[in-house]
Prior knowledge:
Shape: globular
Largest sheet: 11 strands, mixed
Helix content: 25-40%
Number of strands: 24
Amino acid sequence: MTPELTSPDTPDTPDVTVTVIVYNDAERLPRAVESVRRQTHATIEIVISDDHSTDGTPEVARALASEDPRIRYLRLPRNSGGCSAPRNRALEIARAPYVMFLDSDDELTDNALELLLSAHREREIDFAMGAVVRVREDSGRRTKWMPHLVAEARTVVGIESEPRLLFEHLSTSKMYARAFLDRHDLRFPEGIHYEDQLFTAQAYCLAKEFTIIPDPVYRWHIAPFAATDAASISNQRDRLDNVRDRVRVQHLIDGFLTESGHGALREDKDYKFLKHDFRMYAGDLPYRDERWLSSFADIMTPYLETLSPSAYARLPRTERVVLQLIRERRFPEARLAARGLGRAVAPRQVSQDAEGNTYWGSVLPPSDWSRRELNVADLELDTRPFRSAQFRHEITELTRGPGASVDLTIRTYDPGLRLPVGPLRASLLLTPGRRRLITPFRLTPVRPGVFEGHVHLDLTTAPVPHHGFTGVRHPLLRIEHQGLRHTAVLLAPLTFPTLTTRINYHSATAPHHVTIEPEGRGPGRLQVRWEPVGVTARLVRPVVRRLARPRVRKAARLVRSALR
């Protein structure tokens, strides 16, 4: 069966072909296509490559093609289950000397093609790449993807001069010379996910020169809480097939590096896998059960054992600990270690050998490699300045109190024995807006290195602004000792019943729904969520948002100045 192709008359030879791949995404496809249609460089071709959608996508795509002669609609005869086949089929019919790829749930910035094409015309290069902006669909927050890699404009002569670029493995942030792709028969691997990683690694290695521009060219929409069936591939990390695909792609990259004479990049590529790919799974480990973790280790450990020791040595100690605990199948400890990643959270326990070396956990490591990876001397648990010392604060019991309050039992672990034997002044800190709620309590020693305390947190006393507050906050725990203060995250049980109540702040002029819940991802902190209701939501908040706009604030300042 051959693909269905709708191809309206396109008399002008396009400068760039943009392939928009789609599968069952009728709702968002018009947004993606419109971002290409409104480009400041208009001499283009748009190929909508449909991986045999079963929803309304074909009708939407044909309607878009009927509106604009630059659009061609390609429908694959059967679903391939991935991104590679629709991209490859589109490349077969692309007519322009330069090509670019776009996913149906994302967008190009308005001048993306103009900027990237200009880079190609200034110098004979194999591809040009720009910055990617990640847009969270739940909050609208925008951040640059790998900003340090695209901070300055430059032309790179050979990937060996900047191997750190292997971290930027997206195929969609780049405009390729079609002659470059054809010369090396460079296409996406079919039948496997994470195809971008292999394709991009090959492009980096095969390119003689490529140009980087710091301007944003691609908007990557992130839906972190999407339903499982609708989640992107990178957000389906709970599926073991996802793990298998990621490891399989790494094997393919390793083979390519060896066969193409780029074996010197192996350490950098291994480091990228450990720091980025494995790290993504590591953050989810606290939420995985024993059976899943066992299967995960079965898939992951054989590959981990092939990686360069020097790549492990470049990682932060806490990440090395998690890796080693997985390799040793110490899954409960791996969960505990993973909850502290990136948060300066100490272990509950440490052990010492006869030479005084300190290791993660209560069991001495069984091998030289294990001792190397689990040695926590560089955490300086017993010598760091107090403000940056590492403790571990966990909620061991959480019960609903009267009204909008909760009672917490908190346990603090001090494996470096930094804290004095005796009661400690502590407090919970919570900041809904600009002002802070401080709830003091006392931590009492249970045994050396372990303290426990009880705190009553009353959310009706939170200093919510008169105009209301929308957002999520995670309480912090502060310890005071000898005039010094130490503040750190507070870990909660990973599961407990969500508590929601209405609080009429400021004598009912600022009503809110307030929810206490487990964080649900990452380290699993206690999470408090505010949502204005009533007049605060309907009237007050919209007015405040309008006043907060830069132009409105400027006008308000001018008015105040004129009235003085």
